[in-house]
Amino acid sequence: MRILIATSGSAESDLAVHLGGVIRQMIAGTLTLLTVIKNEADRPQAEAILVRAKTLLKSTPVEAQIRIGQTAEEIVREAVQSRHGLVIVGEQKQQGLAGRWLPPTAERVIAQMPCPVLIARGEIRPLRRVLVCESGRDPSLLNRLITHLTPLLQQVDELTALHVMSQIAAAPGVPGRVLVTDLTNRAMALVRYENGDVASWNPDGWPCPCGCPFPRLQRVHGRTSDFFTTPAGKRIHGEWFTHLFYGRTGVERFQVHQRSLTLVEVRTVGSATEADLAPLLGKMREALGEGVTVVWQRVDDIPLTRAGKHRFTLSDVPFLPGAP
What does DSSP assign to residue 258? Predict the structure, then answer.
């Protein structure tokens, strides 16, 4: 394997050099040191950087290269033209205004590099345990590492693949929370914006005949706060509760509020008593199941939302994808 180590002579670059030496001791291959300068006048300084880097590698055989141009772009060109299988760079924080607007060199290298890139940071020691953070995309990161870095992975003692599910994706036709990511909107890009709706996406007719490559919604079921979740995992739409109040005398306004998985509060405005509403409250308790407490309270007023709307039903229990 051909390994390329980029160095600028900084402390962060020294870590990359040390890491390259450690890996070279683990597997057979050749090392190439590369430093990039802005113009020819900087060559003496570049040569000094390479001489010092060679001393860090001690007796390890190494080639040396100097390229002129932009750092990230020249690292990528050298790796591609010389067919390097692994690139090692140090992590250097950008300073000043440029650091706020321009991504670091390592990040720009990763974005353009066709082969694996290692970023050296912290204490450099032999690679014994490797953690692979999988995203679930195809081809998987683990498969790509096996393809490109088999000699290195064969030398480690432990290889762990980790996949973290930050969200549970709803299957086609199954209601789920709507999270919007829209990077094609030039006016305002959206990244995982949750609009509060519950919808299911259409398993058929994808892509849309209009040419849009994204899946289409099959149905909008309502708002996340419109659904009540029982301890057994059953979901009840808020409209079921509102139908119970149809034709009830003595009820001018009402609100059914699920405070938690085991507590539902019913508030009414009007002359109706708890005895008058007993049949209604009994149906709620039966539908919600064992372990759920339903309490009733008569109030003088039920506050409107900030938008001036009256919410007949409201749930504080998070909505999770699954069968209704």
Answer: E
pLDDT at 225 over 70: no
Are 160 and 131 a contacting pair, CB within 8 Å?
Answer: yes
Q: SS3 for 15?
A: helix
Does the pLDDT at position 118 exceed 70?
yes
What CA–CA distance (Å, rounded) separates 312 from 226?
Answer: 9
All structural domains of the chain, each given as residue ranges with its CATH number in brackets, are 2-126 (3.40.50.620), 176-224 (no CATH), 227-315 (3.30.300.30)
Please calculate the CA angle 193-196-199 and round it to the nearest 5 degrees.
Answer: 100
pTM of the predicted structure, to 2 decimals: 0.51
**Angstrom distance (rounded) from CA 57 to CA 79:** 20
Whether residue 207 is preceded by a cis peptide bond, meaning omega within 30 degrees of 0, is yes
Residue range 270-292, pLDDT digits in tens: 999 999 999 999 999 999 998 89
Long-range contacts of 169-172 (CB under 8 A, 24+ apart): 169/321, 170/200, 170/201, 170/321, 170/322, 171/321, 172/200, 172/201, 172/202, 172/203, 172/218
d(Cα 23, Cα 155) in Å, to the nearest integer? 10
Would the pLDDT of 112 be above 90?
Answer: no
pLDDT value of position 137 = 64
